[in-house]
Fold Pyridoxal phosphate-dependent transferase.
Amino acid sequence: MALNGTANLPLPGTVLPARPRLAKIRGRCQRQPCGLKVQAYTQNGNGNGAALADPTKFNPVLTKDFCAPWTVPESGIADALGLMASGDLFRYNRNDANSAASRAEVALSEYTGHKYCLAVNSGASAIFLSLVSAGVKPGDKVFSNALTFGAVPSAIHHAGASVEFVESTNAYVLDTEHLEKKCQECPDVRFLLISHMRGKLADMDEVARICDKYNVTLLEDCAHSLGVFWDGKHSGHHGVACCISTQAYKMLNSGEGGFMLTNDPVIAAKAIVGAGGYEKLYKKHIATPPDEVFESIGKLKIPNYSMRMSNLHAAVLIPQIAVVGDRVALCNRRYDRVTARFEVAAQRVGASMEVPAQHPKVGPCNDSLQFNLIGYSWEQCQAYLANVKARGVPVSVFGAHDNARNYRTWEFLGDLPVMAQTDHIIRFAVDVRLPPQFDNEDFDLMADCLAAGFLSIGEPEQLSKQEAPAAALA
């Protein structure tokens, strides 16, 4: 399969022999025969194309920059320049409510279908405000995924609460069976902040059922799920509030920024005041509850956390919100392309891996790729990552010792529990971005690099327990 460490990928038109292929059935991986025809490879623009005469000498390497986020449309650039020329950067420094921040809030609420929207300076700020506005107080406990980004438990910590972890599944979503068990074991926990990690949604109908049964208030971290729908409705409608990030690697790019969305007028009013809508500045919002709601919440008892979004950030977001649907469609086409090619090539080189499917009710926005290494040792996993990185594809596993998605790195929370199921998953869950500025041929080459990396690690060792060294997870 290899010559001098290079990948032997199939020639165009080759029919692969029937051989074991991993298929995910009822949450477990089983082997079943499969015969697949390889599609023609396209020549890559940077000279690393796969259509070579001798496939045994094909050594895929990708030389493009993965730190290439969504760009700002020309109209957003022009509006931002106009704001800088006029100095109109502060949303409340005007006599009306028609600021760029207000217009961004209206545009996003219309897209997601929420009544109220608040623009803030980061996704973490949005989560914090949603927590305190929903009633989380210092000393409270909040259920949350053991697999998420460190900003989520940080927001809970910021609110003065502590985290009660819930296990995650090998599809990177909250484990609903463990959630119900935790609700039974911890009846004092009254809040769940569910994180839709990498845009993957758990069975949200089941999550809502459990929360209703045990009187748990549900909030949703939708930082990664803008453009993701559940049963035809945008994500974020099962909880009392949801939060979106516009940090550079998200579907909307303002460098930093975020939004809180809700249909609850009291939560909306409290969040607007808490973000910095002091005195009667709430009148300078549009996607907001009636004035009487603000006058009924005891707004003088709400601290001013000064988390407002500037007009400059909002201006670059408004034209991006208008094209979110187009971006989602493009992401999904590219994801389908890269995963189809990757799965065929990985099968050809004898890889043991799975790309977990999402829940059938999910309408996805696939702007990144995750897959699980099956049966390999920790050492094989590290060798695979090193090989693929050397090919120019910056892959990682969620369980790496320096990965902010590894719950063991959240030492600011104090003593951390052992989440055995999540530990097992994150050690072998590979994560890679699908940069929006790449071309189709770049995604083809990315798939080839991911597949070729398996040639460096040999057959899976089929360990009875896939254990990583303790130091690697510390």
